[in-house]
Amino acid sequence: MSEDLHTRNIVRLMITSGEYILIAKFKERNEDIYFLPGGGIEYNESLITAAHRELAEEIGITENQIKFIEPVAAYEHSWDDKGQPIHEISIVCRCEINDLSYDKEVLSREPHLEFIWQRVDLLFTINFLPEDFRIYVPKWLKQESQKASFFASGITKLP
Predict the structure, then answer these.
(1) Which of 89, 103, 112, 136 is the most exposed place for a label (fewest CB within 10 A)?
(2) Hey, which residues does 9 pair with through a beta bridge?
């Protein structure tokens, strides 16, 4: 194992309103790269606590505005970021929030991010990363609550 490998545990949130899903974008990038809201799980922090914290930090959502957060999938992938090998493990959660709707703008509390509503059936038309999420997110959203869990890997190099 490489000592230079950086492993990240991430909570990703599928926040939906009708046929739409809330996605994030880095403002300072030259290209449009979209991804699910969320972020790193801190040491000794539970998944749900991390989800609550990320919602508060990114879009100012308070705990009493959250209807539910439900883990539905785990996804791992790796890539090289400017010479730094990254291995990311994402726990993807379905999330519903009171008073958050695709017909209302969602303002970012973090200066490097912006949020937009995207039709779920059109995720394949944008640079939505990881690329596999273009296929998996619609599937994960269709899963019956508490009926199925799903693990996917974007790592193609097997031992």
Answers:
(1) 103
(2) 89
Report the largest interatomic distance among the alpha carbons of the chain, rounded to a whole angstrom. 47
Those residues whose C-beta lies under 8 Å from the C-beta of residue 87, and which sit 6 or more positions away, are 5, 6, 7, 8, 76, 77, 78, 155
Task: Quote the mean pLDDT of the chain.
Answer: 87
* Pairing mode, strands 38-40 and 6-17: antiparallel
Q: Which residue shows structure tokens 């939505």?
A: 128
State pLDDT tens for residues 28-83. Answer: 877 799 999 999 999 888 889 999 999 999 999 999 999 999 888 889 988 888 88
Closest CA to 100 of 138, 124, 68, 126: 68
Burial (Cβ within 10 Å: 0-12, 13-18, ≥19) of residue 84: exposed
Look up residue 128 and give its DSSP letter.
B
Neighbours of 69 (CB within 10 A): 20
The rounded distance, in Å, linking the Cα atoms of 29 and 66 is 30
The structure's pTM equals 0.86
